[in-house]
Design a protein that fits this description.
The chain is mostly beta strands. It has one helix spanning 320-323, and strands spanning 5-7, 15-26, 29-37, 47-53, 58-66, 77-85, 88-98, 101-102, 105-109, 114-123, 136-139, 154-160, 165-172, 178-185, 192-198, 206-215, 218-226, 240-243, 245-247, 252-254, 260-261, 268-275, 281-287, 297-298, 300-301, 305-310, 313-318, 326-330, 341-346, 352-355, 358-363, 366-370, 384-386, 395-401, 404-409, 414-419, 427-428, 433-440. Strand 14 (178-185) and strand 15 (192-198) form a beta hairpin. It is globular. The model has no long low-confidence stretch (mean pLDDT 96).
């Protein structure tokens, strides 16, 4: 296939993408796999697409890495993670088998009548994958509802602990509450169930794409609960994060009663983190888009972000590899290289600015946005967004790309990310302080 490349924002090479998978720094390169339907810009039978980068800035698409070949993954290779051990790359993912495919569209299932298993595949170089002979079952479908859900258990995240390997899965309880399932392994092949963690029904009925890690002395959990918000017809599935207390020996996890959103634009979903070459915890997430672009592609990822934990609050700042590329000062967006630019300024309470039709204002100590002028009518997507009250400072760094805006408040205290359509090259920000515009070098 003809390889495509992206700069700054990794987007679908064509057709459909969603969750990032298998994000890893391996043998000098960043590998980012992703949920991929290669036939149309709509959701369907999942494959794993594959992109690589040396610096998180320039990405090259390498085509399809995983695709269905077995009974267990006949109807999709769903989300998972990657680790390195003894020089090999290990991929873990959820395989799905439909018992009742939709006769009108075999890429969909009727009445959630399917089962999920957890599969693994290894690669010597991170570029070649034996889909026909290399797949193994790490965990078969769950048959005892006491330990999880046969259908809705998925998205294995694997990491190395102090004395063993650990896996966390997202699942659902018998009374329809989201929960985590923890497993332990000595050899990355044989896994033993250890414990569960859950909260009340107001935390959603299923937790997708769990991610657990430690950063700056804090233990952090990120989950994407399905059914978190019940404000029909608005999108009900959203990503949240919080500090937790995790005991590795027993795999017991205490989850607090409060959480923060990963991103207050509420368009980002199912993120994944890894460690970069300097040991920083870096995150990417899928940007949900209501429409395909030119009926050709749909779905992209946000700027890679460094995760930090300060005074009980989780922050997400622009990765320095990205930040350091915006060095060419320009006077207007029309001069931007590859349509990528950064606008920076201070915004006092009561002030506002408009970037290409996208409105940003500060009101009652919050950063608020309105994208109604640059977004199609869609009842599942809100055109308004707002952060919680800002603790201190009023600095905004706004990264604008093709169909995406990312607003970093006080260098990561909060972030608002939105999909946008039809931005203009005009900026109305006369009232703000310290306006600067930069594009790529």
């Amino acid at each position: 296939m003809v390889m495509k490349s992206d700069r700054i924002h990794l987007k679908a090479p064509g057709n459909w993408i969603n969750d990032p998978n298998g994000f890893i720094y391996y043998k000098g390169k960043y590998h980012l796999f992703y949920q991929y339907f290669p036939y149309a810009p709509v959701w369907g039978t999942m494959h794993w697409g594959h992109a690589v980068s040396e610096d998180l800035v320039r990405w090259e698409h390498l085509g399809t890495a995983l695709f269905p070949t077995q009974y267990a993954d006949q109807n999709g290779c769903f989300s998972g993670s990657a680790i390195e051990h003894d020089g090999q790359m290990y991929l873990y993912y959820t395989g799905v088998h439909y018992f009742s495919p939709d006769p009108a569209n075999i890429h969909h299932c009727l009445n959630d009548d399917f089962e999920a298993a957890q599969l693994m595949l290894t690669s010597e170089d991170g570029f070649t994958f034996d889909n026909f002979g290399g797949k193994k079952t790490a965990l078969p479908p769950i048959m005892n509802s006491q330990f999880g859900h046969r259908t809705h258990t998925r998205d294995p995240k694997v990491w190395r602990g102090k004395d063993a390997w650990y896996m966390v899965l997202g699942s659902s309880t018998a009374d329809s509450r989201g929960q985590l399932l923890f497993y332990k392994s000595e050899n990355l092949t044989d896994w033993t169930f250890v414990n569960t963690a859950s909260k009340g029904k107001n935390w959603g009925w299923m937790w997708e794409c769990p991610d657990y890690f430690e950063v700056n002395g804090g233990q952090i959990l990120i989950i994407s609960p399905m059914g978190l918000l019940q404000e029909a017809p608005m999108e009900e599935n959203h990503t949240i994060c919080m500090p937790v207390a995790f005991d590795e020996k027993t795999c017991s996890m205490k989850i607090p009663d409060e959480y923060q959103y990963l991103d207050y634009g509420l368009d980002l979903y199912t993120p994944q983190t890894t460690l970069d070459e300097a040991g920083r915890r870096v995150l990417v997430a899928w940007l949900r888009m209501p429409e395909a672009v030119d009926n050709e592609w749909r779905g992209m990822f946000c700027i890679p972000r460094v995760v930090e934990y300060k005074d009980g609050h989780i922050c997400f700042r622009v990765h320095p590899h990205i930040e350091n590329r915006y060095t060419k000062k320009i006077t207007c967006p029309a001069l931007a290289n590859a349509a990528e630019y950064r606008v920076s300024f201070d915004l006092e309470d009561g002030q506002s600015a408009v970037i290409g039709g996208y409105r940003i204002l500060r009101q009652n100590g919050r950063i608020c946005t309105d994208r109604s002028a640059v977004f199609p009518q869609n009842e599942k997507f809100s055109t308004q967004a707002s952060t919680p009250p800002i603790k201190e400072g009023c600095h905004l760094d706004i990264y604008v790309g093709n169909h995406i805006i990312e607003i970093f408040v006080n260098r990561g205290e909060y972030v608002i990310t939105n999909a946008v359509y039809g931005l203009t090259d005009e900026i109305d920000a006369e009232a703000v302080t310290g306006l600067e515009i930069y594009t790529l070098e």
